[in-house]
Structures
1.
Amino acid sequence: MNKKISGLNFIPIGGCSEVGMNLYVYIYNDQWILVDMGMGFDGNLGRELIIPSSDELMKNKSKIKALFITHSHEDHIGAIPYLWPKIECPIYGRPFAIEMIRDKLTQFDLEDKVPLIKIALNSKIEIGSFSIEFIPVAHSTPESSALAITTPEGVVLHSGDWRIDNDPVFGSKTDEQTLKSYGDNGVLALICDSTNVFRDQQPCAEKDVRQNLIDLVKQHPQNRILITCFASNLARLESCYLAAKANGRQMVIVGRSLKKVEKIARLSGYFSEIPAFLDEKKATQLESSKVLLVCTGSQGEVNSALTKMANDTHKIIKLKEDDVLIFSSRVIPGNEKPVMEIQNLLADQRIKIITNIDYEVHASGHPSKEELERLYNLVKPHVLVPIHGGKLHLRKHAEIAREYGIKNIIIPNDGDVIKFSEQTSEVVENFPTKTLAVDGNRLLPLDSTVYKQRELLSTNGIVSICLNCSKGSIKVEDMVCLGIFEEFEQVDRLDIQNDISSEIKLSQEGVLKDKFRDINKLKSLVEKLVKTVFLESRGKKPIVIVHILR
């Protein structure tokens, strides 16, 4: 990739193999701009947060002119603190997204180093051979935008996350007139959200959810009510407040991210007519019938407020048998297991659970089949490239577009270099992409030795054995085992330790005798003996650490 690329090209670095990690590159005659820089989620082996690799961006750092942000969700901005220091370019976005990014950068002491530029509605930014217009679209966080990227080769419309809601209760509706004007003048390619392609129609809009929440709270006048939702959905937070107000309750927010979003929302001019939400300390002073708690944890996040409540580890809020909990959210693909685990814990405590299956308490911010076809009709793209989803999503999106009548469809892989032109558009090459996991304060490849070792630790345990080598003999002084024996199995542990001592003694006259003076060879041989004994007795080959005392 560190070579000159001619014409107009599009490269998804992330966002075309799963929902999340959105990071896209547009290149015109070797001038680069980026769109979004998001993270994904992975609960395996402690890898909670994952991001796309920055290798190709670093190689081409001098060519990158700017990063453009479509909206403020984590899967579109979450990787910025980790990747921006490797490329150091200006970041353009709408005010709410910029403030969310600024708050995130503060946690990394980067807030004064990153050029953050706020863009007004329908503004155009000229950078090199690119002209970029921010077009308002409806979504589940405010100030979301599609990007019209104009180049000498033609216009590419990057949809971002969007849906069509002509009567939004919060934020802007999708600017269909501007989209149509681009379509009338010719759109070379549409790069489009695929998250909701398996829905033929949207079941409800945010205004329906608002009324349903008001009604649900009214149906439980004596119960304490909790609602969990996405923290960045300001429309939903406002709906929760109105549901509380309509039923004589006060709204309490529980969870760090909710408090952060409330602060940023008010700084950005939102919630101006709503009093400050109460924090959880106030909730304990209110009667159950007078409180509505809104908490983080709709996706079963490990450190969220709801997870702590379900496990009875929250310092302030303790769940009660007659509580009612509303999941005002959808389950993001990949999060099914942690969400189900939390719901099972809650059910075991006799908490009444209401989800979107029972009642329409969530409206999606992504387009259904019907909305996709409406966008095709407005934009009339020459080429469609589905993004933002797993392969099932992308292929279903392509099927919808093909049935509609779009002939030129490219289903991308992460790392594909797609060259656009009026004559032909195609994948011209591919470079390998990597996924990195946020591991404490560093980034590690998913296939790193660290994670391989952790997998072994999680499945086979660890044995630390101490050998005393003196007077020409080898004696097992101590053996510590983790993840192998139950507390009541100390007799079994001693039996296996004695077996290992016997095997060492038998080997000492043979192979160990010649290796006695080479500590590394001695350790290797003892390690093999220990693994053999454990394999025969326990069916496991643990990680073995050998200590030598002389």
2.
Amino acid sequence: MKNITKIIKISKPLHRLIFILSVLVLITSSLELVSPILSKLVVDEIVLKVQKNTGDVSWLMTLIVIAFIVSLLNTVLMSVSNRIGDHFSGLLRKFLTEKFYTKVLTLPQSYFDSEISGKIVNQLNRGIMSIYGFMNTATNFILPMLIQSFFTILVLAYYNLPIAFLTLILFPIFMGLSFYSTVKWGREEVKKNKLEDISRGRIQEVISNIKLVKSFLMESKEYELISGLLTKINRIYAKQSNTFHLFDFARNTSLHLILFGINLIVFYNTFKGALTIGEMVLILQLVNQARRPLFGMSFILTQVQAAESGSKEFFEILQLPSKEIFKTKRSIDIIKYPSVVFNQVSFQYEKSQLVLNQASFVMKTKEKVALVGESGAGKTTIVNLILKFYKPSSGQILIGDKDYQRLNHIDVRQLISLVFQDSELFSSTVLENVCYGTTANETEVIKALKLANAYEFVKKLPQGIHSEVGERGIRLSGGQKQRIQIARAILKNSPILILDEATSSLDAKSEKEVQDALEKLMENKLVIIVAHRFSTIQNVDKIIVIEDGRIVDVGTPQGLSKKTGLYSSLLQFQMEGNKKLLEKFEIY
């Protein structure tokens, strides 16, 4: 029950509203107990009139009016309670979503390296629904059940102790059977949740990579995978259903047996005159009302178990340590002309070998630096460390004369504009994608698009800069998406510019146009270029060559091309490839 305790604690900001709801529920549940008592009094007056002709008609009318007023008041309070309940539901969903989303935004990059986005979203939805279900149950069922059960047994004991005892023993019987049933159900629910996370995560991945799935004709395989998972989920559900209905049969059987005994006692005592007709009506109504808490008990325990298992991953994520508090204010003024220094920096990802091994280099102010090496050499890792997505395992990183250890992520990232290798775009408009992270107006966005040689195609879109680009820019070509990213970097205009294969998706003409635009953008900036095509880095000031996580060479493009080493070898491979292509078409 530890997660239930966490649910109660996490909802502390809403406790005042919960208290108001609880008071209203207590009043309405108490008013419901008044109706059987009034019915008893009405029946007694009618019996007096029929049997002894001594009934008081004015008292009878008064009782009917009181019953009407009580019923009307109960209806009004129920409507108010339901309205407040709806308000509470909205606030609870908002509160839980914000709590979860805040945590996700502050988690380190390493968490997302090992998790699937669809799985995270599924855990969020399941957590919110299970917590919401429990809180709704707590306010609308648990309190009324306790109040009604207590007063029902009390009133029954006043009129007939055996009937009160028989009604009372129903509660531990129902509670014991329901508890055992829900515990078994909960164990299976944890297994089912894991399978659902896998299936939802896979569906999310398939939708994100639908072109890949279709081009490799993997629709059947993906369908079979999800179908297989759903079959396993249904088997678990069938097991849960069997358990529930078996115990439900035992509950109902015990109820019918005890109700049979209660009816025998009530009708026999009424027949003998030990109970009046009105008392008989009252007892039967109270016993009938007692059935609702009994049936509710099974529902309540099911909701409790659902909250316990459904919120498990939700709270596990909330308990992860936050590494980046996004509401943190920057601690330093922006450095106008920064430099970057790596001093004996080593790094390794979780459960991996050393990716960067004692790397040392200097990227000077306003310098154009290229990172060169084979795939997996450590180029992207260096970029991630510069962006403070990760902390080095050892060594020191400096920006200007500031130690990274003493800077927060905002201090660092405010200095950097970035163009990713992958097209990192939202499904919103061109305008919103370009001015993301800035407060630029339309005029400034259009100017940035022109500098990135993107405005010509953007203005031809159905709604120009207000056209939506689709998820991850699916409605744009690869080159168009890349130029939107470049326009975004131009608009941010930070003193450090990182180009991670920024022109890799462009044709020769577009690449030349973008390179011309980038030449203007790169003025008076420290530019860090990650590139495999050496044609894009021939005008840089410095090349840092990386091999197996080590810095093996540093120099100018001209100097390194004449020097035996990895750079000249990679350059030679590219030149040979181009030469063969030209020879094939008899151009060389």
3.
Amino acid sequence: MTDTSWGAFSDDGPWNVVVDELEWRPGVPELRAEAERRLPAMINPSRKFPGLRVFTIGWHLGRAIAPWGLTTRRKGGTESRSDLSRRLRRAAEKLGPTYIKLGQIISSGEGIFPAELVAEFAKCRDQVPAERFSTVREVVEADLEAPLESVFQTFSRVPIAAASIAQVHKATLLDGTRVVVKVQRPTVDQLVHQDLRSMAWLAPIFVGRIPIAALANPPALVEVFAHTISEELDFRIEADNMLDVARVFSKLEQDQFVVPRPHPTLVTRRLLVMECLDGFKFDDLDSYQLHGIDTHEIVRASMIGFMEGALIHGIFHGDLHGGNLFARPDGRTALLDFGITGRMSERRRLAFVKLLIGGMTNDPIGQLTAIRDLGALPEDTDIEAVARDLGMFDDVVDPVTMSPEQLVGELQRVVKALLGYGARMPKELMLFVKNMVFLDGAISKLAPDLDLLGEIAHVAGYFATHHGAELAAQVGMDPADYEFDESGVRAAFGVDESTETMTYRQLQERREVIRRRLRTGS
């Protein structure tokens, strides 16, 4: 049996993945459990001083925040947030891989974190110096317990990508097979764990002192970051993530996606050898046209594919961005870098199902209940009170018609209400929203004239047709009670019943009006 019968792999792979014969895989469940067990000790603030590293962290963060507090903080608005964001980004770069990684995660969180912070930390994506080749050789040979030349016929000295945790090299095996080799930086594991303990100790000190953090208050941000990065430090877990995501796409018959095959034997804690897939940048419109690929279909398949993975199986790629996926000439999309993968418990997966149903049927109470069950609100939260405070029962007010003062006031009111109820951003929700934000940006480039209202109706119909009975049974709902309500979707966009269509281009224009009013007051 070939691996394409159960996994979303390329048709002409260099080897056949037989799951039961993978040398590195048997211990992966225990590796996951161990990573989870170690987290509380690292993220729970301790009265015990975490070590000298905290002085370095405190020094750089203090140098970033203190001048801002004495100068631009009092000005407020965009200028204040931009200045603080710039200072925090510079501090992260000086603090090294852990903080650069945190910055990279923040940079892909448009819509979750303030725009100024996202824009500034985007500079961390390509400013990580590569390790020397001699260091790379040491890691490869130590983990494989063999000379590099005894495994690889060629191995590029210059990496094709260098990130905070690892860097990637092209290579060929002794039989001439082209592969990609991901090599972890030699000291990053120790430094990350040391930094997490220091972060957890420092985070409570900054509560209420960094308004730019909004709902992602420092302790909550440390917790989400720790959960996100802990499994990324062992490439055997990442390789297993690749298999699970490939299996999910295959079960869902989502043949739009391709996952590179991990090598059957050349996977260790710090080394991941995988299939080399070719393609072009995900947003390269000229290449789509050259190969006759319908970009609207790409967008549609991406929206449905990632939602299905989360809703039906509770597993999804958790770090979509331009460097982690590319298009292939056959029209399929290759996914890369599975270090951050969303894995939901059954309770949280069902909460996602309820959130989708609540959104499609315009049920604000159902949506808030689902958000609570996802861990974004405390268990004892009065859901109806939250709905009233957020104005979810009120008539829709188009934000474009609001004055700058009204816009600012409404945003402040909503944020204050959420903070008052103890709102936070759990890992799975942050990863899912972050992915949807990326797809939002992809639509702006690949399909700006796509009718969003019509597309959402199509997605709702797809899930009702393919999974309606199954999902309804899982949440105790009669399928006959499901009725797509477009008014809820329109309300989410801030428009009334008179709006029949809305292209992404029109949505961008509306967003720009709102941003301009918030920024300039006009």
